[in-house]
Amino acid sequence: MAISTPTGHGGMFWEINITPLTDIFLVLLIIFMVTASVAVESATHVNLPVAANTSPENKGVLVTYTANHELFVNSKDVPEGDIESELHDALSRVDAKVVIFQGDRTVLLGDMVRILNLAKAAGAQQIAIAARRAGPGEGVSG
Predict the structure, then answer these.
(1) Which of 59, 63, 102, 137 is the most exposed place for a label (fewest CB within 10 A)?
(2) Could you tell me if 37 and 79 are in contact, meaning their C-beta atoms sit under 8 angstroms apart?
(3) Which helix (H) or strand (E) covers residue 30, if one does?
(4) Using CA atoms, how far apart are residues 88 and 114, in angstroms rounded to an integer?
(5) What contacts 71, CB < 8 A, 6 or more positions away?
(6) Which residue has the higher pLDDT, 40 or 91?
(7) Burial status of residue 139 (CB atoms within 10 A of its CB: 0-12, 13-18, 19 or more)
């Protein structure tokens, strides 16, 4: 059984033209690739405060607070409810009872003060704030 196509000038086509559909898929693929690369690239940058003079500090416990409200104690992800007990354990393993706070520029001052109060309650004797060295041409914000 064969299907016959109409002949003449006003007939219908029996084939589907997929060229416009392919064009749409290619455009969508390009848009997806561009937005995915921008999203991944922008999620990896962390802005640190700028300081004129910094010295490397290898002693103490490093507390990192990201812009997404994630807490890390010595590179270990810690829920906010367990931060005091985790800080107490980390401070008991080091000689210098120093907590070094490293936060994103967008961290609110109230969040930082709350975390540093928890560090004091966990047994920290000193608190330091980490900063990255100012490059040439960068002003020191004060």
Answers:
(1) 137
(2) no
(3) helix 19-43
(4) 16
(5) 63, 64, 65, 77, 78, 79, 80, 83, 115
(6) 91
(7) exposed
The contacts of residue 107 (CB under 8 Å, 6+ apart) are: 65, 67
List, in order of start, the domains of the chain with CATH numbers: 50-133 (3.30.420.270)
Give the whole-angstrom CA distance, residue 56 versus residue 8. Answer: 85
Q: What is the pLDDT of residues 98-132, one digit of tens each?
A: 888 887 777 777 777 888 888 888 888 788 777 76
What torsion, rounded to 10 degrees, do the Cα atoms 108, 114, 115, 118 define?
Answer: 180
- Find tokens 């609110």 and name the residue: 108
For residue 90, the one-letter residue type is: A
